[in-house]
Structure formats: structure tokens, C-alpha cells
Amino acid sequence: MPTYQRIKILEYMDKHRDSHPTVEMIYSELSRRLPILSMTTIYNALNAFLEKGLVSAITITGTEIRYDINTNPHHHFLCRECGRIIDIDVECPFARGKEKDICGHRIEEVHGYFKGICKDCLKKHKG
Amino acid sequence: MPTYQRIKILEYMDKHRDSHPTVEMIYSELSRRLPILSMTTIYNALNAFLEKGLVSAITITGTEIRYDINTNPHHHFLCRECGRIIDIDVECPFARGKEKDICGHRIEEVHGYFKGICKDCLKKHKG
DNA sequence: GTGCTTGCAAATCGTTTGCAATAGC
DNA sequence: GCTATTGCAAACGATTTGCAAGCAC
Fold first, then answer.
1. Which member of A62, A77, A122 has the closest CB to residue B57?
2. CA–CA separation, B93 and A27 (whole Å)
3. What architecture (CATH level 2) is domain B75-126?
4. Can you tell me the distance from the alpha carbon of B57 to that of B69, in angstroms, rounded to the nearest whole number?
5. Contact at 8 Å (CB) between B92 and A84?
6. 8 Å CB contact of B102 and A114
7. pLDDT of residue B1
8. Angle B4-15/B39-52 helices, nearest 10 degrees?
9. How far is B7 from chain A (nearest CA, A)?
């Protein structure tokens, strides 16, 4: 029973695959055209998507939850200058799901991320 | 100018290297013996330690900041049942600092963590 | 005495919850 | 009609901030 709002939210997530948006980002764009939308609905929808495995949650920044619809194995890079989160394709056997356990612990999720300064911000410093 | 409180907080961090405590955990043990201590002081101290690189912040859970005094390169494992965070020693070239860049981005911090069920909780299920 | 730290109370902010109205089938 | 979803307002909880009093040197 997909509601109109949930369809729009999923469409947004799909259209902005690379932006790893917050609830706020989704709300500010969608509510422009859909006055019929609240933050709570977005929280509800994303939590439902999380349970179904449609999206995953990224807690890199520590101050907000960012959502990711990319289900391929990958890591993330958070730029401390522009705040962008960039997908990183790595040769990590854990991220690729080749290992089910580590030190006797059963692995269910693998998260890898880097913090630093992204390529584009580095360019600005030089140029 | 190390104050009495900051010394006690550092001592606590050193004594509980493996527990990756929250501010709350530090407060509840220390305040038992030191009525002269507030949460704010712990936040102040840990933020100062962070800037000096004495500790690092772990934002795995998404609901709280956990602090780590272990500066050796390592990953973490978060058990979704008991909530423990366990140090994981991995052969990761990034964690070991052997790579300074990735895809043109400059790496300043490397974070790797797993979520799942820890060895001890797995045992309880069987036993 | 100067500058940093302490610690209370209040503010902040992302997220969750309670709940009555509504939509989907 | 039954169940799940919506969305407002209120609650929550971890962290930060303002600021007066206190400490280190």
C-alpha cells in the first residue's frame, strides 16, 4: 500500500543517489512542490525503508542521520570543508560480504568511512 | 594547567580502555566519589582532548558519542544485543596509515566498524 | 591578576512519540 | 471496514551555550 508521499520520497532518493540526504534536505525540496508533506512522514517512511533494507543509515557526522539508497558494497568519504559525502569503491573483503565473521563475532553490517578534504576542496586551496 | 577533574577523567579513560564510554558512563562512576563534578565539565574536557588528539570520537550508534583513548590503528565492532563496542585489529592499509589519499581526496581520519552479534551473545543463544 | 576551567540553568536541535484524522485496498 | 499512514504538537535526550564564580600559575 504505497502512499503518494512514500513514492515521492523514494523517487527523491533515487534521483539523488549521490547526495546521501538528511530528512531536512528531502523535506526542503519536496515540500516546495508538495505542501502536503511533513517531516514526520519522512521519518516514518525512511524508518520503514530501513527495516525493509531499501535504504541504509549513515551516522558519520554524529549530528544527523544521512540516508543512502545505494546498496552496492562501498565506503564513504566525508569532506570536513564542504560537508559532502562521497561514495568510495574499495577492495574491502568485508564490505564485499566475503567474510561473515570477524574474531568470532557475526557480521551483519559493514561500515567504512574516511574524513578529510575532498578533491574539489583541495583544488580550491591551490587555485 | 591540568585541573583535578581533567586528571580524573583521563585516568578513567585510561583505566577503561576497552569500554569506549559515553559521557554518562564516565559521570556515573566518577561522580560517585567526586561529588565535585558535572556533565558539562566532562563534555568540556573531552572536547579539549579531542582537539589535542588525546582521544577520538566514535559515532557508531547514532544516538550518542562514545570516546576512545586507544590511538593504535583499529576498527570497531558494535553488538546490537549487548551494545558493547569491541576493538578489532584489522589488516587495513587505510587504518594503518599506509595510504594518504583515496580517489584524489586527502585522508585525515579512517573509521571502520561492523555491526552484528558478538561472540559472547552468540554463545548465550546456543547455551 | 590573567586566562582558562567549572558547573549550573537554559537553549538547541535532530528525532521520536501520542494520537486523532485520513488514505489505500 | 480494517489496517497502515499522515501530520500536528508535544516530548525526549544528547550536546552546546551563556555566564558568574573559582582555580592554576
1. A62
2. 39
3. 2-Layer Sandwich (3.30)
4. 9
5. no
6. yes
7. 66
8. 70
9. 26
Cell of A40: 514526520
With a CB cutoff of 8 Å and minimum separation 6, the contacts of B11 are: none
For the domain covering A4-68, report its CATH number.
1.10.10.10
A100: pLDDT strictly greater than 90 = yes
Every domain range in chain B assigned CATH 3.30.1490? 75-126
CA distance A101 to A14: 31
Q: For B61 and C20, how far is CA from C1' in angstroms? A: 33
Q: How far apart are CA B27 and CA A47, in angstroms?
A: 32
Q: How far is CA A72 from CA A67, A96, B64, in A?
A: 14, 8, 27
CB atoms within 10 A of CB B53: 8
Three cell numbers written together for A96: 564485499
**What's CA A17's distance to the chain center, in Å?**
8
Assess whether pLDDT exceeds 90 at residue A33: no
CB contact at 8 A, B117 and B80? yes
As given in the structure block, the three cell numbers for residue A17 are 543517489
β-strands A101-102, A85-88 pairing = unpaired
- pLDDT category at B43 given cuts 50, 70, 90 is very high
Alpha helices in chain B (DSSP H): 4-15, 23-33, 39-52, 119-126
pTM score above 0.85:
yes
